[in-house]
Amino acid sequence: MLIDKHSRVPLYEQVIAQIERGILTGEFKADEQIPSVRQLSIELSVNPNTLQKAYTELERRGLCYTVPGNGRFVSRDAELKLRSMRRELIEKVEQLARELKLSGVSEAEVVEAVRTAYSEGVSQATKIGEKEGENK
Fold first, then answer.
1. Contact by Cβ (8 Å): 50, 12
2. What pTM did the predictor assign?
């Protein structure tokens, strides 16, 4: 796991996103332990409180659970919950697109805005991936 300390995205949000991606890609499987706060703190050179904040949020979302004395584990239904959250986001985009259409915004403007957002996201992911390759 790698984070971009120069990103405008807060470190704890980057950690959440990477663990969510790991769940969706199968890197972290149901009932499998995720890295400890201490381990990840050392690996990423990040304050443990930042990681604790990320893990607390993951637990709040129902994506992981704590076993006292044994660490944190991926919830059995974490992947299903994430896929459901993604579907809800798509539904919000669809609703927003309808509202934009009613307000006179052209389809081309909306598509261009989506392309811009995706290309910015790809640029950010590429930067993180390049840094990960440098650190191996």
1. yes
2. 0.72
